[in-house]
Design goal:
CATH topology of the largest domain: Beta-lactamase
Shape: elongated
Helix content: 25-40%
Strand content: 15-25%
CATH architecture of the largest domain: 3-Layer(aba) Sandwich
Largest sheet: 5 strands, antiparallel
Strand order of the largest sheet: 2-1-9-8-7
Order of helices and strands: HEEHEEHHHHHEEHEEEHEEEEEEEHH
Domain Peptidase S11 D-alanyl-D-alanine carboxypeptidase A N-terminal: 31-252
EC number: 3.4.16.4
CATH superfamily of the largest domain: DD-peptidase/beta-lactamase superfamily
Number of domains: 3
CATH class of the largest domain: Alpha Beta
Keywords: Carboxypeptidase, Cell shape, Cell wall biogenesis/degradation, Hydrolase, Peptidoglycan synthesis, Protease, Signal
Structural class: alpha+beta
Pfam families: PBP5_C, Peptidase_S11
Radius of gyration: 30 Å
Active site: 61, 64, 116
Number of strands: 16
Length: 398
């Protein structure tokens, strides 16, 4: 009980700290670099503000965002993991796992994202990939798929490594991807959880270190970070009026104050607007049969963050490939809907048929008669019978 109480008090006291510790030194330092900053809307990934967003620098424990979303997407969170001895006593932030302790994947994720446990990070890496190097390889592959083109991951926790680095833009894209996952959002928005005893001899009360959750309206995650090399780093999430924003500040001494300023400005300047409502729009396509048409529609609504002056500059274009060859079945593609803001494509989706349109017997007879009539006139000057022309195809004239 004393151990449980001591850990709870230590975790709660950490809220008062302005940063998440992951101690260590790194030969590649961000301290002489300008802060990297960006604000993005989570679903469209539109950039609302950026400053030095492509500057490459270390990112400390914000690394754990990628670790967490990989585990959530790939693993059964109910699985029970036996903590390997290699993952005990990892330097920096820790939940003090013990060798042989049994703990669920989801509870390890809480330890990773609330308490910033480096031992949780390594335990999850061993569970997922059998080791840190293999997991780092997976991290780099997944980061590329999320659009993080200028990042290199060498470990699952962000402890200093001269090659372990990212950019504010890359980390923002990873964070946007992660925050679109409801399980990830549930974990990073939790202010505290109690993890049951798995063999350590006590429960763990884990308190979230992210001070934004306690003092910023609409805050719902996601991760703090600090090393001497990386400086103070913070990825913040907040939602207001249906708009989910992500801010990233790397190597920022006043990371909480600056994150709040960036989010305030973005919420004041942009509104999340339904640009396109799929249910209310129908598109008619001509077919190869005269007086026969096919109706189509898109499947998805589209929301986008826009300023007051931008809303009137949205252009929506529907392009239908006409005439459509019959038969057309429900679900067949008819064309493309494209949405532009100031001549820049911001969204596109396919237009699908919502009905089945086939040639009737009358249509077939009419088509045969029309072809026969055309061939009869064509063959009059070539001494070929119309029936022969229909069987062989209309001959080319000289």
């Amino acid at each position: 009980m004393f151990k449980r109480l001591l850990l709870a008090l230590f975790s709660a006291a950490a809220i008062a700290l302005p940063l998440c510790m992951a101690s260590g030194n790194c030969t590649a330092s961000a301290q002489t670099e300008k802060s990297g900053q960006i604000v993005m809307e989570a679903y469209s990934e539109r950039v609302l503000f950026e400053e030095n967003a492509d500057g490459v620098m270390p990112m400390a424990s914000t690394t754990k965002i990628l670790t967490a979303i990989i585990i959530i997407e790939d693993c059964d969170l109910k699985d029970i993991v036996t903590v390997p001895k290699e993952c005990v006593g990892v330097e920096g932030s820790s939940v003090y796992l013990t060798a042989g302790e049994k703990i669920s994947v989801k509870d390890l994720l809480y330890g990773l994202m609330l308490r910033s446990g480096n031992d949780c990070a390594e335990t999850l890496a061993f569970y997922h990939s059998g080791g840190i190097e293999n997991f780092a390889r997976c991290m780099n592959e997944r980061a590329k798929k999320m659009g993080a083109e200028n990042s290199t991951f060498k470990n699952p926790h962000g402890l200093p490594d001269p090659e372990h680095c990212t950019t504010a833009r890359d980390l923002g894209r990873i964070a946007c991807h992660a925050m679109r996952n409801p399980v990830f959002r549930e974990i990073v928005s939790a202010k505290s959880v109690t993890v049951p005893d798995g063999g350590a001899g006590y429960e763990r009360m884990l308190t979230n270190k992210n001070k934004m959750l306690y003092c910023y309206d609409g805050a719902n995650g996601i991760k703090t970070g600090y090393t001497r090399a990386a400086g103070k780093c913070l990825v913040s999430g907040a939602e207001r009026n249906g708009m989910q924003l992500i801010s990233v500040v790397l190597n920022c001494p006043d990371m909480y104050e600056r994150s709040a300023e960036l989010l305030d400005e973005a919420f004041a300047s942009y509104k999340y607007v339904k640009i396109y409502a799929a249910e209310g729009m129908r598109y008619t396509a001509a077919t190869q049969v005269k007086n026969k048409q096919c109706t189509g529609m898109c499947r998805d609504d589209f929301y986008y963050p826009v300023s007051e002056t931008e809303a009137e500059r949205i252009v929506i274009r529907a392009e239908i490939a006409e005439p459509c060859r019959l038969p057309v079945y429900e679900g067949d593609e008819l064309g493309i809907l494209s949405i532009y803001l100031e001549n820049q494509l911001i969204f596109s989706q396919k237009i699908y048929s919502i009905e089945c349109v086939k040639k009737s017997l009358v249509d077939i007879i009419r088509e045969i008669a029309e072809n026969y009539s055309q061939n009869e006139g064509l063959c009059a000057s070539t001494n070929i019978s119309p029936n022969a022309a229909l069987r062989a195809g209309a001959p080319a004239t000289n």
